[in-house]
Amino acid sequence: MDRDSENGGDERLTGRDGDGEPGGPVDRRTVLGAVAGAGSAAVAGCAGSEPDDASTTGLDPERLEGLAARFAPTLYFDAAEPWFPTDPRPYASEEDGETVVDGFAAFDGYHERYDEAGEPPDPTVFYNGMRYEDSPLAVVQFWIYSAFDQFTANFHWHDWEALHVFVDLDTGDPQLYVASSHSRSVPNNEFLDPDPDRVPRILTELGSHSSALSVNEVPDGFRRVGEGGLLADITNAAIDTVEDLLGIPLAYGLPRDEGARLPFVVPEYEGEPIYDHPDLPSVTADSLVDGALTVRSLDALSSPPTDLPARETGVAFRHRERDDPEAAETAETVVEYDLVPSAELEHIDEFAGPQLSFEFAVPQAVEDAVAGHITTTGVPWEQPRYENPALDVSAGNHRSELADRYDAIADDPSFGDGAAGALDAVVARVTEATETDDAPDGEGLTTTETSVESFVLIESDPEAVPTFAGGVAVANGVPEGDHRLTVNGAGQAPHSERLTVAAEESVTAAGVDGEIPLVARESARKVEVDDAESDVDVTRTAIEDDFAGRIYDSAVDGSDATYVHAGGAYTTEVRDADDEVGAYRVNPDPPGAGSDDDDGDDGDSDDGDAAGPGEADPIRIDRPETGAASLAGYVADVAEETRAAVAEVADDDGDDDDGSGGSDGGTDGSGSGPSNAVNGLERALAAAVDQAERAEERAREGDAEGTDRQLSNVLDRIARIEDRLAAAREGLPPGLANATGKRVEQARGAGKL
Q1: pTM over 0.70
Q2: Which of 47, 72, 465, 535 is the most buried (most CB within 10 A)?
């Protein structure tokens, strides 16, 4: 799903069965306008989405050859890499008067020749050069072809990567490196003012071939931020509003070199693993990314993988006519490649291959899946950036700097430092939800940094965006309007939400305050809300854990579903079209409780079909309500849940009290000793239950005055609970004391009373 293959040419999906375009083609310049921050107008293809850069002409062949030899990069590959830079011409054929490189022929032929020779066949890097008119600025482009791309979020036949070297012809100094990244939504890896005496180095991502830069003293390591006297390998500057939320420079980088796990998925074609296809006799399971790094599908695991091998350098590719001692010292094997002008490929009309499949799960009330994010490749020399490489400068600070130096580069505010004003980006940090030690066992969560990268899909632009730097997701150029955002991760239940991108907002934070916690499939319980049999139209749902706080908040259209951790205890909030609020207690596994097999109106029903990731049945809220009756019922539920837990502690301490308390709270429990204080707390909770149930009755009877009076009593009882809790803390287990305080906050807060 790399930038080059994802957005090549007209983005046709051309298969043997005659598959055509899934939709209208999007011009490459329009796409790259969105990358740089031009906003929804650029995505829509409106006029003015291109920067007004000067025209370009080809470089003199002799001068181009010299520059290409000077800047030819050394490429470092993972030890598990199966597809190295090669020449596609041996796999070309004539079809209907056109020269075509067929995906089956290239994929199978590459492995056949690799197996026969015992070494990568035809190691080749192609180059092209353009000069901006009336300017000393020129660009040497290095184009790198691989026969296949295997990535978790996307895979396809053929793969084109590019390194652009912007060079000043007057001084001979390089100005900017731009290396291919993932998708048009994630900025490229770029470096301004590289050392002119150092050979450019590319760290190639396993399987997908996304290109990270290496410019410092560590040849095969990537650093997003400089430290220990070493330069950072990128100079991308984050747009302020995004940096405040995510705290890092925006560039894809190299996740497996930044400590993150990245599982790979087996591609399928016509419902079978690609290596089983009869037209690929030379391709076996061993031809793909090593099985130690591979999962059959994202949902094949019950929890995120923790034993995936880290990145390890195996092979380095260097230009045949230049020594590179660093490569020899760093890599196990050094392969010499040929430099060939890309003009020698321009007779090829198409790189073809049918769409491969892999589904993203969407946790709607009825399970759904999306496979349209899988893409194929195009012809590089038909892409606008082939003639105007500045279109691939995706960091606004870099375009602005080039514009300051060279009149040929337009200082377009939608592409430069002013891009924040026009940016339509959706951003989030994906985390993991786990149980917290601060809560009673199975009664509360915390969120931690994820150790496994995941993938984000926005329904309006069906290409999956990989997270990077430990869970950072950035989808750039998202059009104004309503969207569904879905996150998938290996061994994790899918997350899906609806969000709105507003024209006046440069950045839309997905999730809750920009955080999306995922849940391991083995711990996931589905919560469903369906207003089909309700008197209200639900427009929004939110879920708040007692300890982790709000973990889900989404617009809905009548029904909704999401996965929560079975080890949490939650408040589920619903809002209707009039912005009235209702609330339900959802505790997947309350201590001492059996199955609550009722009709689901209280949000704690276990009837229904199995949910998928979790083995338990979904928790359903079938007839959601808003208003005082719902809120009072919620307070009664959460107070009774807490009362039962406190009463159990009192019983364990040998108390004779039956825990029923009384409607007026009984004695105040202010006697000396922790045991008396615990009894007092239990009675205060019982009184709150009684008053809340009375308030719910008044509300259902339509007695507005009586409802208000009873709700006032409820608030008074909550205040008493807070007083009793302060006195009883010494006699309660710390987790239960913490939970009681959190639940009081839940009952009082979020506009529920």
Answers
A1: yes
A2: 465
